[in-house]
Specification:
160 residues; five-stranded parallel β-sheet; globular
Length: 160
């Protein structure tokens, strides 16, 4: 039987169509739905319920894109993005957010250069948003900042 080689991935694959994505958050139902949608689209998806687990996962396998929520167990989502980018500089980030009650998160998004993606959304919209953020990384000198293209409804399952 011939030897099989195993390739260890140590960097990011930002210039490829499919990406390694880290989901950060403790809301299991929403995370599971997002994970399934993105895996069906061909992405490798890792999930961490807390910041400590996310740090360990990123040290073992850097992610191209972080998806989080405005509030996670330990701290605000934008602070988690800022902290994790000290581990993986330039990592793209997408914050899934429902109704924003104040402008603080949007101000942080502008300062820290990450995208806020409004929920609820369809599976097709999520896949398109991730594709758009990754494409921007290939074409923009400042790939971490992008405005969401959510607008017209597309057929598909709603993910919240």
């Amino acid at each position: 039987m011939p030897k099989q080689s195993v390739k260890v991935i140590t960097g990011t694959n930002r210039y490829k169509k499919n990406a390694r994505i880290l989901l950060l958050g403790s809301e299991r139902i929403g995370q599971t739905a997002i994970r399934e949608v993105l895996e069906r689209a061909g992405h490798v998806v890792l999930a961490a319920e807390d910041l400590g687990t996310a740090v360990i996962m990123l040290s073992e396998c850097p992610a191209d894109l972080l998806i989080t929520h405005p509030y996670i167990a330990e701290l605000p989502g934008h602070e988690a993005i800022k902290y994790l980018r000290t581990k993986i500089p330039g990592m793209l980030a997408l914050m899934v957010a429902g109704v924003m009650e104040d402008d603080r998160v949007q101000n942080e998004a502008d300062l820290e250069r990450f995208t806020i993606f409004p929920a609820p959304f369809t599976a097709a919209q999520l896949v398109e948003e991730v594709r758009s953020v990754l494409k921007l990384a290939r074409t923009s000198p400042n790939p971490s900042l992008k405005e969401s293209k959510i607008g017209a409804e597309k057929p598909g399952d709603t993910v919240s």
